[in-house]
Amino acid sequence: MTSTKKALLALLTVLAMFAAACGSDAATDTSSSDESDASDEAGDDGEAMADGGDVKAAFVMVAPVGDAGWNFMHNEGRIGAEAATGVETAFVESIPEGGAEFDEAVQNFIDEGYNVIFTTSFGYMDATEKFAADNPDVIFEHISGFKMNDTNFGNTFGRMYQPRYIAGMAAGAATESNKIGYVAAFPIPEVIRGINAFALGVKAVNPDATVEVAWTSTWFGIAEEGAAAQALIDTGADVLSMHQDSTATGAAISDAGGTFIGYHSDMSAQVPAYLTAPVWNWTPRYSAVIEAAKAGTYTPEAWWGGMADGVVDIEVPASSPVADDMQAVKDSILAGEFDVFDQGTITDQEGNVIIEDGVVQAELLDPFSGDPVAGPGDELHDGVLATMSFFVDNVIGTVE
Amino acid sequence: MFGFRLAKRDQALPGGQVLAFGIGLIVALAFGAVLLVVAGHSPVEIYLKMADAAFGSPQAWSTTLTQAVPLGLAGLAVAVAGSMGLWNIGAEGQIIAGAIAGSWVARLGPDLPGPMLITLMLIGAAIGGGLLALGPAIARAHLGVNEIITTLMLNEIALRTVRYLVNGPWKDPTSIGFPVAPELPEQAALPTLFERADISVLIAAAVLIVFGFYAARSKWGFELRIAGSSEKAAEYVGISLKRKILTVLVLSGAIAGLVGGLRLGATDRIVEGVAEGWGFAGIIVAALALMRPSGVAAVAIAFGALRVGGVAIKGQGVPASIAEIIQALVLLGALGAAVFTTYRIVGPNSNSGGDATSRDMSEVAS
Questions:
Q1: What is the pTM of this model?
Q2: How close is the nearest chain B Cα to the Cα of A7, in Å?
Q3: Do A52-158+283-309 and A161-277+319-396 agree at the fold level?
């Protein structure tokens, strides 16, 4: 028993040390503004209320921003938006979803006068909604989910399938074995849509090639993704693409001497086999939200931007034999004259025609609720893309 | 190796734990300070920031306590089993099982009044967690199957199950493809206690106090420790080991399951990441509390403060990696200190210490 008491005593001592330390901190806070270079508090907050033009933007990230993937690109967007708009920005990384740490991080930013807050992971959605309701003077933009309100809470995402189509063209031209591999994360519509767009791009330049899918059930899993990549290489794939945050797929195909089509960011420095990649560019969107906040014109929306909006992009590699064709498609997407799923005949793996020249030909159901999404004769709409749960005919693999 | 070894002290160092924890903390903060200086920050400023974020205001306290709830209950779950020498590595999975069971209850009775719904959800969650621990408990009690392996592997089963549910049968039809279950009824949200803390703080405090006293004072708790220190002694005095193992492991799972139920009140719906590592953090909490249920609450609050402080300094431009290293150093310092209160280093030429070298590290905590 005495040792129990001692353990308690020890921990209380630790607590007391923390408490003592925080007591002195409270004193520092009221007497001086030492961190003014970091957060510019006091004076600015008052002005923010006065003219409504003093905007500070903060970003909450789910993983370290050094990952060359999703979080890295959001941080690049933050840096770009800071340069473009001149507003002060801050970020906090490695904040788990759905925990008190998220609340702590967001509240800290609000307390420091940040009035535009970007929460950049799906799992932040519900907590962001609550903060938006409790803080009507702060604008919240969530990337990406499906919730919003009428005043200060919107969501943002990008039509990554557009550059994935162009990436597919590069892959179709690069393969010699006519076997292309795709290391995929989770069988959700976003990923399935990306695979289909990629496969349609492959088909456009190389009708004989197939795209084989290997699921990893990871967003960042070096071991799983490396193993899936190796399995695809072992079946003869000489070009690989992927939909995760690690560079494991790129490393595997580099070792095998093949070609790598990346994702998220330009990985030419890290991956020898890198050819090109569909990439995120959040700077224009972040800048637009911040400018709207500055002007007092922010209106929440479910924003789904494409290449023409600058949020997604792909560099056309000059070395590709189909570089001119890729550039032509890129130009027509940018001009709004070409849509990946709104053209030609799109057939599923069983040979059923699903979409013909932008008109739905089959009964399409939401894969999860079973509710009808579209039927024969309907114009193609975003709901079809948002619930996509079939593979096109040159994909090998199952959507589960 | 080199003739040095750890020998168990005949008696725990008198007053040693306070001293050791203090030294452990100071050493950890000193190492952290070096990292911070290298990264271009003032260690004093950063440490003050951490302390302020964790304890500097009622709001800070509410955040710290909110963190301490799952840490404390998960820690208690591990410690209850640990005080009998059993290792429940499956708290993570039991939290998920609790969350699944809790949301299942909410799906069955979406129109029940709030207090009743919350009560049923929490009971359901505890049953869910207990059920997941039942298999390992039976296997350990009757077949002698190592509970470390079985509880650990059931984590994976629980994770796959929740993944299946939110991607399949429980998927929110309005979520346009995102893998989440529908939101729970509004009245299932736990009422606020103060600032950001909800009544889960009271529930956890009640559970911790009851178990702390019960485990320390009751015959049941005494028998647990007897069984933990020597199975033969336990059998000699007529304690049914099989029954003890069964009840203790199931109870451990039920406490972890309760964490899952409380988490639902905070996250509004069940998601794949509902356990979020709390079950594994519970193992650290229990180890720091030396597997004594009565010590868990203080450790959980200190650990919670460390996490809250870590978030605060991440927002100050300290890289997340350094913030996390500092947190890890403090835990490591405290754990290391715990070793030296019960063990001492014996030189190559010393004959003392007897057969202590054969004892494994788990005894540090028993």
A1: 0.78
A2: 6
A3: yes
Assign residue B243 a region (left: φ > 0; alpha: ψ between -120 and 50; beta: otherwise). Answer: alpha
Residue range(s) defining the domain that contains residue B128: 73-286
Interface test with B, best of A104, A106, A220, A388 (most B CBs within 10 A): A104
Chain B neighbours among A 285-304 (CB < 8 Å)?
none
Q: What is the three-class DSSP state of B343?
A: strand
**In a 10 Å sphere around its CB, with 0-12 CB exposed, 13-18 middle and 19+ buried, how is residue A110 labelled?**
middle
Examine the domain organization and report whether B111 and B191 are in the same domain: yes
Q: Which of residues 72-111 of A touch B (CB under 8 A)?
A: 90, 92-101, 103-105, 107-109
Nearest CA in chain A to B25: A14
Nearest CB partner across the interface for B216, out of A4, A13, A187: A4
Q: Where are the beta strands (DSSP E) in chain A?
A: 56-60, 88-92, 116-119, 139-142, 153-158, 179-184, 210-215, 239-242, 259-261, 274-276, 278-280, 302-305, 312-314, 345-347, 353-356, 359-360, 364-365, 372-374, 395-396
What is the length of chain B? 366
How confident is the model over A299-317, as pLDDT tens digits?
999 999 999 999 999 999 9
**How do strand A302-305 and strand A153-158 relate by DSSP bridges?**
parallel
Pull the structure tokens for residue B36. 């911070």
**C-alpha span between A325 and A188 (Å, rounded):** 30
Rounded to an integer, what distance in angstroms lies between the CA atom of residue A130 and that of residue A115? 15
For residue B320, give the nearest of A35, A93, A190 by CB distance. A93
**Residues 6+ away with beta carbon under 8 Å from A204:** A165, A168, A169, A172, A325, A329
Residue B238: pLDDT band (50, 70, 90) is: confident
Verify whether the Cβ–Cβ distance A101 to B292 is below 8 Å: no
Query: Is-contact B217 B116, C-beta < 8 A?
Result: no
SS3 label, residue A304: strand
Of B286, B302, B333, which residue sits at a domain end?
B286
Instruction: Considering only the beta carbons, identify the residue of B55, B269, B307 that sits closest to A22.
Output: B55
Mention every residue, 6+ apart, whose C-beta is less than 8 A from residue B143: none
Query: The complex's ipTM?
Result: 0.72
Distance (Å, rounded) from C-alpha B338 to C-alpha B204? Answer: 25
What class has domain A161-277+319-396?
alpha beta
| Length reported for chain A | 400
User: What is the pLDDT confidence band of residue A76, given thresholds at 50, 70 and 90?
Assistant: very high
Which of chain B's residues have a Cβ under 8 Å away from the Cβ of A126?
Answer: 183, 267-269
DSSP class of residue A59 equals E
